[in-house]
Amino acid sequence: MVSLRGRWRPTLASAVVLILGVITGCGGPDASSDAGSVSSASTTTSTTPANVYEQQRAAGVTRLLDELTETITSGNLREVGVLLDDTATPAFKNRWVTATANFRPREFSRGGSDGRLRFAHFDYQLAPTEEAETLVPADVQGLLDAEGSSDSWVAPVELRYALGGERAPGVDESEVVVSTQFVVARYGDEWKLVGDAEALGGEPTPTQLWELPALSVTDVATAGGTSVIASYPRTAQTVANLRRLLPDAVDAVSAFWGDSWDRRAVVVATSKPNEFEELVIQGRGVTGTAAAATVYNRVDYPRRTATGQRVVFTPAADDLAAPTLAVVLRHELTHVAARAQTALDAPLWITEGVAEFVGRKGTYTRFADAAPDLTEAIRAGDVPAGLPDDAAFAMDGATSEVAYQSAWSMAAYVADRYDEARLKRLYLGVAATADPARQDAAIRAALGVDRSELVAGWGRWLDGQVR
């Protein structure tokens, strides 16, 4: 995540944030984390043989989901309303109208695309689950009864999609799976959409890029293939800057991390605070002064892959000069490159420090230019006695500024005292775990010193830099 206080602060991609059902952060809690998906707990479909009633219900809702998929992807605004129940809330109805509008063909072309997100596939379908069935809330059921509904169901649903593909050139990413629940109601032989998880009293279904009004898309050629910049109205300057900066930013990250990542990205420019907030739910380390955040859908640790990664900029990015925006972009793309090898609870001093090191490399001539708040503290005799803890990064103001600058300076120290290859090795070891003992072992394996010796050497280096 990036914050601004007269100047920019790096993005905290290791924060826990959601988009598409995605948590920011550098990893997940287990080997096949799907941490961002809305839980399908308390949905239906058991392992016992289905009776005729259940089969008919599943078949009817499958037809509804097929019609929903076809209506949205064809941009058919006339038909989308037919699929929505009269009892659905205005916000729920508007979500589908907006999504359908964003799939409609455009009359202009920009950046080599027609202004729309393009998909290799896009499909809503019933999801398998062994959880017990959830009852439709009494207040919702009362409205459906009054409308003459003969049946209702809280259906487990998956949205499965992938950008790009042979028939639709684009970013060409792996499949993203978003799990949710739909409340559906039957009238005769037809089923209609009533609501989602929010109608059940839970958190709303994570917002997708195409569910916010007036989405536009432009393509950019980068080292690993086509990258995508998704944007909303009044972000023209940010988009223009990102188009120029993105290829070099990808190359700068690869220069440190290597070519073992996709070397392409989906970057999002928002123009209103609510757009950023809906795409990025604030969590660990996210502050109100954020300038950007990186989010993802799923990490498969054994296969070292991550899906659905997005770099999302706040409206404040429109005020950033191009060189500053470049630093932020390189920082965020470092999180993208490192995602599949970074644990969810990895210490922020290493994840943010290395991302900040890559982002700022070659952009300053004096230590004080890169770390003014830390410089001031050291001159006042307050040399850090230890590495910043995670809580310090989540606070607005001077505390978080010093935390970020301290993390950057530790990475800069390791690169200067050892080299960048050892810094990457340090990252891979320390960021792989939340266990301090394993982190200590990783420090010694990478640098040949223990944590206390590392901190002591860093302190001497800081003092020398400031003097």
Automatic annotation (TrEMBL):
Top-level taxon of origin: Bacteria
Compositional bias of kind Low complexity: 31-50
Stretches for region Disordered: 31-51
Protein's name in the database: Peptidase MA superfamily protein
Organism in which the protein naturally occurs: Gordonia westfalica
